[in-house]
Task: structure prediction
Amino acid sequence: MAPLLDLLTVPQVMARLQLGRSAVYDLLRSGQLVSITLGRARRIPARALADFIHAHLEQEAA
Result:
């Protein structure tokens, strides 16, 4: 698992989730995936992505 402080770019998240840019930004806008903004750059903590994936895995299993 990724260290707690790793920050991912939107393109990195797109590649890991195999989703398009607008789908990732929809997840960010809806609060399903959290991010931070540094200047004009948006970064997604690797831990937030892992939590998002685990939450969806649990929903699928239920």
In short: The longest strand covers residues 41-45. Residues 7-61 form one domain.
